[in-house]
Every structure is written in C-alpha cells, then in structure tokens.
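Researcher: We plan to redesign the surface later, but first we want a full-length starting point. Tokens attached.
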C-alpha cells in the first residue's frame, strides 16, 4: 500500500518555527496543513500576478487609463 503523502524536511529559523507552531495552534490545525495552505495561497497569488500582468499589458495596448476609457470601449 503506497502513501498518499510524502515527508518533506525543510530548514527554518527558530523564530520561524515558533511562528509556524503558534499560527497552527491558533488556527487549530497541524503544521503540515498550515504549510499546505501557505503553498496553495502562494500559488494562487502567483496566478493572480500573471492575470494582473495580462490585464496591464492589455490596458496599455488598448490605451485604457481610466474607467471612462473602459466605458468608451465597451459602449
């Protein structure tokens, strides 16, 4: 029977370890669950960065500087 998880060893400072432990305790979760959630949020933020970049490039290409410009284009 194979595991559905893998063990990952990471190095953190003593202060970071304390923060992880305190945050996990305050959230009533495990350190592993906290780190998995942090990874999920990190990936989400990276995806949002890509979406923002596409939006900014599109706005620049279409000369959109304000909501009025959006209304002008959509109108």
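Model: Full-length starting sequence:
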């Amino acid at each position: 029977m194979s595991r559905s998880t893998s063990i990952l060893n990471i190095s953190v400072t003593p202060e970071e370890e304390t923060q992880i432990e305190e945050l996990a305790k305050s959230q009533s979760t495990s350190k592993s669950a906290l780190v998995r959630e942090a990874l999920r949020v990190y990936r989400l933020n990276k995806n949002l960065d890509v979406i923002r970049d596409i939006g900014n490039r599109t706005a620049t290409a279409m000369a959109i500087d304000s909501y009025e410009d959006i209304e002008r284009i959509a109108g």
